[in-house]
Structure formats: structure tokens, C-alpha cells
Amino acid sequence: MSLENVREYLDRYEKGGDIIEFDVSTATVELAAQALGTQPCRIAKTIALLNDDHALLVVAAGDAKVDNKKFKDEFGIKAKMLDAEQVVRLTEHVVGGVCPFALPQSAELYLDVSMKRFETVFPACGTAHTAIELTLAELEATTPYIRWVDACKNWE
């Protein structure tokens, strides 16, 4: 189960106990913000895209959207969202719970600059009922991110 995998993964960083579980869905930016009592822009959404036969994940602020031109400039490919079956197969997380933790080695993870305006953000933790609050330094330390990118729009 994904939550247990994420908790075990975050335990390596002494963060597994910081996962917040909800009785309500946090599957969308709006639902997560409502459950957490925060602004939607502070939700660190993980955008799941396809790169050949593996997932390319971009963690971005909740109010950011993929900018096709910036994305192509960053990655040299057209942005193509994963379908529900691909999400589970390529990220090992369910739709609504895709997160930057406990990913398969084939997944590529990037952090978008849209989050740099916040001291802390709230990524999901493998299910549509979980989140964790992390500083950007903690997010960097607990994820296998490759680099920061500028691939989104509508957040400035």
C-alpha cells in the first residue's frame, strides 16, 4: 500500500511521523487546501507526465499550470499527462495521491520554481487522504529530485 511505502520511506529522514491523515479527500489542490486550512497555492502538486516509457514528475505550486513552451524548452519533449492506469504503473501511487516520495527508480522528479515563494509546502503522501508540511530544504533532502525547473505558468 502506498501510504505505508511513503511512511517507511520518510522514516529514513525522521519524517514518517509527520504525515497528516484526513477523513476527507485531499485528492485535488482545492480539497487539500480546504482540509489543511491553507491557500491552494501552497499545495505541492505532483504533475505526472510521460517520458518515453517512464514517469516524468514535476512538483509545482497548487496554482501553477504546465506551460507547454517552457516544458518543451526544459525537457525537449511535449508535455503529455499520464492516464490513470499509467499513473499507478509508473509512479506506484494512486491518482490523487501521487507524490515525490517512494518512487520507482525509473521515475524522473523535478521541482518547479513556482514553489520557491513559500517557506513550507504540502505534498501528498501516496494516498488521496494524506499530506505533509515540509520546508523547501526538507523537500530537497527527502526526494530524489534531479533539479529545479521553470516549467509552469499562472503563478507569478
Summarize the structure.
This protein is of the alpha/beta class and 156 residues long.
Descriptive account of the structure:
The structure is a single chain. This protein is of the alpha/beta class. It has one domain (2-147): YbaK/aminoacyl-tRNA synthetase-associated domain (YbaK protein, Alpha-Beta Complex), CATH 3.90.960.10. Helix content is 26%, strand content 24%. The chain contains 5 helices and 10 strands. It has helices spanning 2-11, 29-36, 68-75, 84-91, 136-142; strands at residues 20-21, 43-51, 54-61, 65-66, 108-112, 120-123, 130-131, 134-135, 148-149, 152-153. The chain has a 6-stranded mixed sheet. It has a two-stranded antiparallel sheet with strand order 1-7. A hairpin with a 2-residue loop joins strand 2 and strand 3 (54-61). It is globular. The termini are far apart.
Tell me the CATH topology: YbaK protein
Q: Give the strand order of the largest sheet, numbering strands 1, 2, ... along the chain.
A: 8-6-2-3-5-9
Rg, alpha carbons: 14 Å
Fraction of residues in helices? 25-40%
Q: Which runs of at least 5 residues are low in confidence (pLDDT < 50)?
A: none
Please give the CATH class.
Alpha Beta
CATH homologous superfamily placement: YbaK/aminoacyl-tRNA synthetase-associated domain
Protein structure class: alpha/beta
Task: Report the average pLDDT across residues.
Answer: 96
Number of domains: 1
Largest sheet: 6 strands, mixed
Individual helix count? 5
What is the 3D form?
Answer: globular
**How do the helices and strands follow one another from N- to C-terminus?**
HEHEEEHHEEEEHEE
Strand residue percentage: 15-25%
The span between the termini is 37 Å
In CATH terms, what is the architecture? Answer: Alpha-Beta Complex
Tell how many strands the DSSP assignment holds: 10
